[in-house]
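Dear colleague,

Following up on yesterday's call, I've attached the two folding results inline so they're easy to grep. Please treat them as preliminary; we haven't cross-checked anything against experimental data yet. The first protein's sequence and structure tokens come first.
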Amino acid sequence: MWVKSKLLVVLVEALLLQLIYGQGFDYNVSYDSRSIIINGERKLIISGSIHYPRSVPAMWPGLVQLAKEGGVNAIESYVFWNGHELSPDNFYFEGRFDLVNFVKIVHQAGMYMILRIGPFVAAEWNYGGVPVWLHYVPGTVFRTDNEPWKYYMEKFTTYIVNLLKEEKLFASQGGPIILAQIENEYGNYEKAYGDGGKRYAQWCAKMALSKNIGVPWIMCQQWDTPDPVINTCNAFYCHDFTPVSAKSPKIWTENWPGWFKSFGSPTPHRPAEDIAYAVARFFQKGGSVHNYYVYHGGTNFGRTAGDYVTTSYDYDAPIDEYGLARFPKWGHLKELHGAIKLCEKALLNGERTSLSLGPLLEADVYTETSGSCAAFLSNSDNKTDRIVQFRNMTYNLPAWSVSILPDCKNVEFNSAKVGSQSSVIDMVSEELQQSASSDNRDLKNLQWEVFVEKPGIWGEPDFNITGFVDHINTTKDTTDYLWVTTSLYLDSNEILENNSSQVLSVKSKGHALHVFVNQELQGSPSGTDFTAEIPISLKAGINEITLLSMTVGLTSAGTLYEWVGAGLTSVELKGLKNGTLDLANFTWFYKIGLQGEHLNLYKGDGLKSSNWISTMEPPKQQPLTWYKVLVDAPSNNEPIGLDMIHMWKGLAWLNGEQIGRYWPINSSKYDSCVDHCDYRGEFSQKKCSTGCGEPTQRWYHIPRSWFKPSGNVLVIFEERGGDPTQIRFSKRKVSSICSFVSEDHPSLSALSWTSPVNEPNDVSLTARLSCPGSTLISSIKFASFGDPSGACGSYTRGDCHDPNSVSVVEKICLNKSECDIKLTNDNFNQAFCPNTVRRLAVEAVCG
């Protein structure tokens, strides 16, 4: 008896571990046409991408937990080959690239994992995630039926699979990984590679299956996948997607909740209503596995961004770059996920019936033998709200919306009706504080150290050649920088009296360039395949022309993308008496990288180098200048950004960690931007942009875990010239939280909206507020019951206002972390605003 009791205790403990952590038992993963099947049960998967190298290990548990709280039950990530195999067989899995630790954190959270091994990933990541060294292996052509490419690709894939098997991280071993992906969006390019592309796609599938990982493989955007590999969809909308095989479930691997930013471009946004519409339509039309690309975008630290992609990879995602929930998007999608999960049994096991309710109006009904029933009512008209009849009831369907009825009667959620709280987030500036561990005793003034590079060749040139070489083939992406210099002698009679007519005409494949003549900066053109006419001033005698060619990330995707070059292709001198002089015929001297990079000024012993010169007044607007300062960590515990608005372009490090490229270049004021985005109608990445004429990226994320309490070494390399004394830390703070509810726009987090037209709800409307972290509601900035208008941070009273609004809200909410304000007669005078749709708007401060 004792043995049986002891065994029972052990089994119960094991079951608890399985329930709490998802650990302890292997489980079978298969699929049919309806869904992924785990241990014989069909599962509905709502996943969110979190890319482990785009955050830091200290952030991973919080990001995964916030995703889980948002109703996500799986995490998806690429595997970033060039971050792991630094050179052939030289592997790295530490810090931000500790893949195993990340997967285990997902596991401990009790969530599933979708791992996109690739190993080509695109992802706006440098070189598409492929190591640059592979391009220089003789005979290699990426992503086709090419033996060197296939050898190294399979070798790395096998390494990753074996690593994860050793840690028992596949579901077949009791781990969280339920799906794995090979290649990435290859169907978009396969035809361009001819027969070799077709053979390669089939080889990928066969190679992946040979790894025997015990879970299904997927290939996204691939139209010729052989069974049993599942092809999947990537797009803003995937409700019309049909898998190649009738045996496969409908999987959406990339739903883009926003878009990435490029230097010099405005900021894209995607409204929460449209994302929710797209997701609801996908499940309405039989989808069962959905993933947000991305749920948290993160940061392209160091030099990991693709060409011209900003250091910020925020992506307007439900969790922002700094790890904070983005409201109302995060909350609206959480409510959507809850509504969809109420439909899971009927969606995955019931029979589907599709009905037309009128032009652009559809109902999809799922009925299951046990009696469960779920319905989706959609209005795809992008302008007109509709009233429809469904099962003898009347429903109001706003334009471009889906209503979800988990019982085929009551509306739990409508995609166009955002009831989640919203928020105002500020970047609160904080001056750099001299570290107490500094040798400088005057802690009120920063003591800087500087190192100024001389334009041109330092030390001995690496080589010289007549004409120009490809930048990338020369640096092999070991640095952004390549010095190119020559000299020419001009007799006085060759120079026109009007020196302003002298122009240096340069052509470059990109990405940026600084032009120096006789050590003086003349201009800084940038772009892809650009031509620039730069006025210069020459003198009689010897003139030195020095060009600093720069890359801003490498191309991340495209047919034969690895052959895309960069750098100078032509340099001509115009404005001489004898006409144009083609400098391509001159001997040019080349030097790879900056002197400061070779001296390691940003890390290790380089931080103590004798090349640094101390000063209380660092030079301003000085090109090619390295700055170093010791600072204390910013106060409190909010996420931190580095404000570089007063600098021009360069690189930044903290304690040797690479913050990334900074370049607060303005977007064009002539770009298309909006003050208000109409979510109705199909979305594209340029539909809802903001920030035209403003800096592309002002703040640069520095993870809190990179800071020590004091003695933090901040190093900046400024290329063109800025004012380092204006550099600031900025704390990302939620300054206000808001809730806005209306009698015709109920807060869906608080009630099930039955919404028969003109019939009152049985449940009172509720405005819900919740402060982040451990903060409490410290004050009420605005409250009005009546007909207020506006948005969070800019509410205004209307013609009708209950004067007790503020006192009522204060009584309910002050000094609480969260509160619910019900629109009842006990709280507000319902006699106000007769014959008017009444609303409550509240803005509160958390502290």
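Below is the second protein, in the same order (sequence, then structure):
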Amino acid sequence: MLARNTQEIALDAQEVVIRLSGVSKYFSVVAALVDVSAEFRRGEVHALLGENGAGKSTLMNIISGTLQPTDGEIFFEGRPVSQMTPEIAKSLGIGICFQHPAILDDLSILENLRVALPARVFEGDQPQAVGQRLLSKVGLDLALSMRADSLTVAQKHLLEIAKALALDPKVLILDEPTASLDQDSTEMLFARIREVAAAGTSVIYITHRLAELRQIANRVTVLRDGCVRGSAMIGEIADADLVGMIVGRTMHSAFPPKAPDGESDVGLDVTGLSNRHLRDVSFTVTRGQIVGIAGVAGNGQSELMRTLAGLGPFTGEVVLRGTSLSQKTLLDEAAFMPSDRHIEGVAGSLTVRENATYSALERFATGGIMSRKKELEHVNAIFKDLAVKTPGLEAPIFALSGGNQQKVVMSRALLSEPGLIIADEPTQGVDVGARFEIYRILREVSATGIPVVVNSSDAVELEGLCDKVVVLSRGQVVEVLTGNDVTEERIVSAAVQAETHGDSSLSVKEQKSGWKWRNLLQSDNAAAVPLAIVTILLGLYVYAQNENFLSVFNIYNILMLATALGFIAMGQTIALMMGGIDLSVGPLAGFLVVVASFFLTGESSTSMMVVGFCLMFVGAFVTGAINGILIRFANFTPIAATLAMYIAIQGCSFLLRDNPDGYISMTVTDWINWQWGPFPVAFLVLVAATIAAEVILRRTRAGWRLRAVGSNEHSARRAGIPVELTFVGGYIACSMLTSVGAIMLMAQIGVGDPRQGVNYTLASITAVVLGGTSLAGGRGSFIGTLIGAVLLTEVLNAVTFLGLSQTYQYLFQGLLVVASALIYAAAGKRSRH
């Protein structure tokens, strides 16, 4: 005890790295933090406890610069920080691992590291070598080129931790870092925390697991309802006192009493359950029992839960209260609580109320007509039982803390009146008080005769909650524990000593075998190969029908037309990769040609022509800037902003010229139409520009940022990416590329015609979609866009050579787009499997 006191005295004397003074944060009139003051010392692990919604994550977001405080001050190493931003936080040496990792699914692992970390981290060595070192520090053995959406939740957490450790931070913030980690990974993380703390780093550790405090923390501060409720050295406070401070009341027991022995009424009987992940799994659930599923992570637990929920095929038999169920009937009977609530648990576009009730709407309807009163009564009752904290039933679901979102998921499961409940990690990321409520509700449900099956990576939770524990290894049952045998020691021993012990979810030997094939299918450029093949085959077919199709003149004509479309479609690719769209590119191209028709005529001097080209580029720059500003700062949607610009620009074109006029100088058009053999030099320039753009997209910070904001704007912002600047810059680049396409269009039509250009909006979107760029943002390829532009132009040309009507142009375009969408979707599904 004397040694402990000596250590605590030494810690008290340590230098304060971050001091918060009177920090408050209000969202509208809702207080998230009120007058919070705290100190975080060098070389100390400072735990932060509190219920979901207590303000812990808000406080950490303020320290890391993601949020700005309403009131109060932040002092770093004794100096006030006027306005903390993610960039300033990184420069000061503040690293944060978010509860929901700021991982960008559409980027590779290495790209995630490079876009989020300062360039200095990768200086002095090859980026791949640095990336592998960073991963090895957190026990990950992954291919750096693997796309992040292939990672498990646990792997994403470890990647997030690797990013934070890479900064060699003065302050390391860890928000629920062990929520999805298995025991080995948790111990590895604790070892890293001790290392960085010993080196002088101040570690702020947010957790809901009281057992972890005794292992890792020196000091603890408790928040409740946005206020500091107390702070103490770990050795000076008991768990019961901590729980009382967290929930504001005394908790007598974490777990409700278990079911009495002797019950023989079988509610659920699973016999010989097998599929790709499971082999001959059998167990029973009697009335009043809660059955737990245990094992080292990655040995079939989650797959078993999904199968019991009807989300996967199986052989064998599942009997619920005497009735054998198929996959379809299981899907109807089971209420599934998934472990990853953000992906499968909640619908982000729906309100809190809608998320709670959408699977039970028939309960609130009479004659097919919904009763809002009945719906609200049930929702309010279940929310009261589960102590759901929400600013309102009509609030967006993501306005709730993570734990309260999990309570909404459980509310939906209970409101649907299920035949059985399948809960996969039901308390992951949930605070102490809410856990008690969830345990109580699960026990009450099981007492009514509804079978409850729970998967948890926490052996203590399984011991306290479950009447029976089924231990899995490599998808097989290795032991079934009942009664007094359901202890943490027996559960862990059965899992780690199993002879059939499988790879954990963090092991990637199987993932790395064949990763090249998966990465090829997942690559943004995967669409280019089949697209090129289709282009060649179409050319050969039309040539077989009409040999003039592959003449030098026609090849030149196709490529020249494709050049104008190609540049405009490249700009459209940028907009779509950011998750936006630019409907104004077609009218902008036509408008710029009209502007040029006043300055690039046969009578114009050289200086006047230079002015004309400059005005084209300036007009494009201004258009792109206005589009970006309207979207990012005036809260216009991309469609609304660019549609308004579409109308405005087209109107300006007719104001300048109501009919075709102003013939372009032949000297200018001859230079632009210069050819080398059958190839227009301008097309070769397009190819070079495409390759350069692809290199920028894959190898530079600007390209990673572009894809990052389209992949997940929220995660990109938390990773320190300047989202607004990236969007505005992207729309400017889109318009500038359109101006180059306008120069090509000018050379083709040779006159200022306000009616030209409009069709390029739809054509550019078609070419981009053909090239494999996702309309949802984050993924795209300039190479695919180039080939898509060539194929689209070739199709339009081929219709003429085959003697078909114009109707077939639109028919073939539509078929190409639909076929492309189906092929890319099938390829993506195959690569994920």
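For the second protein, one point worth flagging: The first strand starts at residue 16 and ends at 27.

Best wishes,
A.L.
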